[in-house]
Amino acid sequence: GVLTLCGTLDAQDQPVLISACNDNSVRLYDLPS
C-alpha cells in the first residue's frame, strides 16, 4: 500500500505527485496541469 503522498513542483514548475510505498519503492507521477 501507499505510505505517503506528497505533491510538489519539478524543475519546470510542473506538478508532480510522489508516493512512497511499503515495498520500499518511491513512485513519481506527472499530473496534468
From TrEMBL:
Protein origin, superkingdom: Eukaryota
Name this protein carries in UniProt: Anaphase-promoting complex subunit 4 WD40 domain-containing protein
